[in-house]
Write a structure and sequence with these properties.
alpha/beta, single chain, seven-stranded parallel beta sheet
């Protein structure tokens, strides 16, 4: 076990599966006390069990990031449970696709904005409120290579929401570095998550598809994305402010 985050408390939203679970486990492996959050208690408890089985420390708190009051309560529970909040990873997000801009269902549009954009803002506001009153901290927002970095047909709403996260990150970083809060983003491409699977596609079929679609010839592993997040959250990145680190195997290069 590395000691890079020993005695640090880390909050990870959307941590019931996929990249969020991988990021939470990576922080725990490096000594952090981790609060994992999401809407499904059973999945969060599985993440906690995996962390504890590996010798780490974690707690689960359910919250819907689209509801500001639930996010404020989440941060309060985190502080109550482990005595503070040093690092936050705003990973919770949803995907809606399959339509061009002119045909995009307004219900899907609103859902994407509520979770992917306003949800990040809710989390950021609650996290910064605590951090700037307690000596600062680090926040990493999980965006996407789709949006600010590359566009593909048929993914209109998701791309707009994630481009907004990239812009939100840069603007907030300038606003709050004077408060001692470093804010950055990681923008994964296709990665070790069900979100990168096409409808009805198997992992083996995705592997074949990515040989053609990615210059690297494969998806990114959850560990590779987590490594980028931990770097931005660590003292090694002490002068990195407002960065948007793309992890996509060269797709947007």
């Amino acid at each position: 076990m590395s000691a890079r985050f020993t005695h640090r408390t880390v909050l990870v939203t959307g941590a019931g599966s996929g990249l969020g679970r991988g990021i939470a486990r990576a922080f725990a492996t490096e000594g952090a006390r981790v609060v994992v959050s999401g809407r499904g208690a059973a999945a969060l408890n599985e993440t906690v069990a995996l962390i504890e089985a590996a010798g780490g420390t974690a707690a689960a708190v359910t919250a819907d990031v689209s509801r500001a009051e639930e996010v404020r309560a989440l941060v309060a529970r985190t502080v109550e449970t482990f005595g503070g909040l040093d690092v936050a990873v705003n990973n919770a997000g949803i995907f809606r696709g399959g339509h061009a801009a002119a045909d995009f269902p307004l219900d899907d549009w609103q859902a994407l904005l509520d979770v992917n954009v306003t949800g990040v803002l809710h989390a950021l506001q609650a996290e910064v409120a605590h951090m700037r009153a307690h000596g600062g901290g680090a926040i990493v927002n999980i965006s996407s290579n789709l949006g600010a970095h590359v566009r593909v047909p048929g993914v209109f709403g998701y791309q707009v929401s994630k481009a907004a996260v990239s812009a939100l990150t840069r603007a907030a970083a300038r606003d709050h570095i004077a408060d001692g809060v470093r804010i950055n983003a990681v923008s994964p491409g296709a990665a070790e998550s069900t979100m990168s699977l096409h409808p009805g596609e198997t992992e083996a079929e995705r592997e074949v598809r990515m040989k053609d679609q990615s210059p690297l010839g494969r998806i990114s592993s959850a560990a590779e994305v987590a490594a980028a997040v931990l770097y931005l959250a660590s003292e090694d990145a002490g002068s990195v402010v407002g960065a948007d680190l793309v992890i996509d195997g060269g797709v947007s290069a």
